[in-house]
Automatic annotation (TrEMBL):
InterPro entries: DUF3105 (IPR021454)
Chain positions covered by the region annotation Disordered: 1-28
Basic and acidic residues bias locations: 13-28
UniProt keyword annotations, A-Z: Membrane, Transmembrane, Transmembrane helix
Source organism of the structure: Streptomyces cavernicola
Spans through the membrane: 36-57
Protein name (Swiss-Prot/TrEMBL): DUF3105 domain-containing protein
Pfam families: DUF3105
Skewed-composition ranges (Low complexity): 1-12
């Protein structure tokens, strides 16, 4: 009897030991799984932070490069305007600004030059924020744009398509400028500002760039800074 009891107690203790060992093993696996999960989550977060930092730094670098580009372009434009302000443009015609009328009128005006470079004009200006018009526009509205400091590029049927394309691109990229056909003008390509006018044979003529640099919001402008938007559109 005593031997049987001792054998039963031994078996019970063995089972308890095995159960305890299994529980310890299970707890060890759970700890390992939690550790692996934490390490993986940390790696993911670190990766996301790394990617986010990289994207942020790249965006900042691109922003700085763009700001540097714009600053350099503005300096170049300012230098070009300064040089152009004192430049003499060969072949340019000039009219005394004091003799050009500036009254607002509500009827067509007969101008002594084609296209006009100043004089009495409509109270509404033509939009001249780089606007390119496919059809002729009223002179009296365009003259008001010149008063605001715009350069008006005009052409007739003799103008070459390549020149028109190049001038359209320049006007479109230049605030305070506009472009339209003027069938009655003598030159194929003409540029006008308040009291100033130039005829050229090609858009590649270097005087085109000088004329723009000198007269877009130039010293000849009677009303510098006045609006070139919110006026009349074709």
């Amino acid at each position: 009897m005593g031997s049987s009891t001792t054998s039963g107690q031994g078996s019970s203790n063995d089972r308890k030991a095995r159960i305890a060992a299994m529980r310890r093993a299970e707890q060890a696996r759970e700890r390992r799984n939690r550790t692996v999960a934490i390490v993986a989550a940390t790696a993911v977060v670190a990766g996301l932070v790394g990617v986010g930092s990289y994207l942020f730094i790249r965006e900042q670098n691109e922003k700085e490069r763009e700001e540097a580009r714009v600053t350099a372009e503005q300096k170049a434009q300012a230098k070009a305007r300064e040089e152009a302000a004192n430049a003499t443009i060969e072949g340019e015609r000039s009219w005394d600004a004091k003799e050009l009328g500036r009254k607002h009128v509500a009827k067509p005006v007969s101008y002594p030059m084609t296209p006009p470079v100043g004089g009495d004009h409509d109270q509404v200006w033509m939009n001249c924020n780089g606007d390119v018009y496919a059809k002729p526009i009223p002179d009296r509205h365009a003259v008001h744009s010149l008063e605001h400091g715009a350069v008006w590029v005009t052409y007739n049927a003799k103008a070459k398509p390549a020149d028109l394309k190049a001038l359209e691109a320049k006007v479109s990229a230049t605030p305070y400028s506009l472009m339209s056909p003027v069938n009655g003008q003598k030159g194929a390509l003409m540029l006008s500002a308040w009291g100033k006018q130039l005829t050229v044979d090609s858009a590649k003529d270097p005087r085109v760039a000088t004329f723009f640099a000198k007269y877009v919001q130039g010293k000849q402008t009677p009303e510098p800074g006045a609006a070139c938007q919110g006026g009349m559109a074709q």
